[in-house]
Each structure stands twice: as C-alpha cells, then as structure tokens.
Write a structure and sequence with these properties.
Strand order of the largest sheet: 4-3-5-6-7-2-8
Radius of gyration: 20 Å
Shape: globular
Structural class: alpha+beta
Number of helices: 4
Strand content: 35-45%
Largest sheet: 7 strands, antiparallel
Oligomer: single chain
C-alpha cells in the first residue's frame, strides 16, 4: 500500500470512528448506581436474601455451578435460590438482571466478589437494598461521580451447546427450562465506555434484538 492509500485508509477509519461516536449516548456515573464489594463464601445465601425485596426488577436469573448452568425466567414471587440440583456451596457465578439493574456475583476461591449496576428507582417501585458494610460495599460515584460514559445497547444471539462438546452438562441454557419464546433470541446488553474502553457491561434482558 502506497503512502496516498495509507492516508486515505486512515481518514476512512477516523471517519467511521467519529460516526460511531456521534451515535452513542452519554451519562455521568452519578446518574447510575454502580456498587461493588466482596463477602465470604458462607455469606452467599444471606447476601442473596438481601436482594429478594428487589426481585421485581430481575426478570432473569443465571446460575452457574461447576457442572451445570441454569437460565431461569423470574416470577414476581420467586425466591432467589439455586435451581433444583444446585447448592449454594457449588455455585461459581450468579447473574440476576432486568431492565432496571444487573447484579453479578462470582466466586474467587472461598470469597465472592459482587458488582451491581442499575438505575435509581422511582416512587412506587421496589427499592434497591440498603447494603451494610459487612459486604464491603463501595459506591463508584463516591470517587468517580463526574466520570462521563458513552453507552450503547448491544445484542448477542443466544446459542445452545452441541451434545458432543459440553463445558457443563446438557442442561446448558436449555430453552425449555427458561420457557423461551421464539422472539426471545437475544441477550441484550448495555456497554458503558470511557476513554475508548468498555468499563462496564450491563445485562438488560433476553428478548428481541435491541435497536440500540
């Protein structure tokens, strides 16, 4: 490639990047709820119970154990506990999410790290929990409230594993278990970016492809 073509190629790349940036929306960290912390393995069931009052905001649940993965559609009265066949001491990762918020819990040896990102709730809506210092909660906005994020919604097509190659059992993301409809083909996410890098990935829902 000669110098003239290299310059044209660079201009095209810059133009495409600017067009993409123009299509992104912005939000400051203080307008979001971004919390995180950790707790000991024995406190997992207790920590999950703290969030039961906010269950209405979690439309979907993902429970991952060493040899099993369950995708569960939440019901308004669903108690947050591992699906049949799992125990709390087998859990490696949990994700509770809906359009209002996304709670991620993941094992780190005999501890669990957690991260929540969501929107403030309005009057008449189920409140987010008041988390105590026991869970080592840190509020991102306390030190980074003025940080500006660019964000966009992204959709990923759900897929199911072949019987011949299983990372976990054949129950991996079984559509029948979650009662998925034909329209619920995509895992919709919101990506928050800062300085050209993705800082947070927030699960929104499982449904039709997002227009974001």
């Amino acid at each position: 490639m000669n110098t003239k073509n290299k310059i044209r190629n660079a201009i095209d790349i810059i133009g495409a990047a600017r067009k993409k940036l123009d299509n992104l929306q912005t939000i400051t960290a203080k307008k979001l709820l971004i919390w995180g912390g950790s707790f000991q393995e024995a406190e997992l069931a207790e920590f999950i119970k703290v969030w039961e009052g906010s269950q209405a905001h979690f439309s979907w649940q993902m429970w991952e154990a060493v040899s099993r993965f369950d995708l569960v559609r939440s019901r308004s009265q669903t108690v947050l506990r591992p699906p049949a066949g799992n125990r709390f001491d087998d859990i490696e990762r949990i994700r509770l999410f809906g359009n209002k918020g996304d709670l991620l819990i993941r094992r780190d040896a005999d501890w669990f790290a957690w991260r929540f990102i969501g929107d403030p709730v309005g009057d008449g809506e189920a409140a987010w929990p008041m988390l105590i210092k026991k869970y080592e909660m840190k509020d991102y906005a306390d030190s980074h409230g003025d940080n500006l994020f660019y964000w966009q919604d992204v959709s990923y097509l759900l897929w199911h594993r072949d019987e011949k190659e299983q990372r976990v059992s054949t129950l991996w993301a079984d559509a029948r278990n979650a009662n998925l409809t034909k329209q619920e083909k995509y895992l919709n996410q919101r990506h928050y970016m800062r300085q050209g890098r993705i800082e947070f990935v927030r699960y929104l829902n499982i449904g039709e492809k997002s227009n974001g």
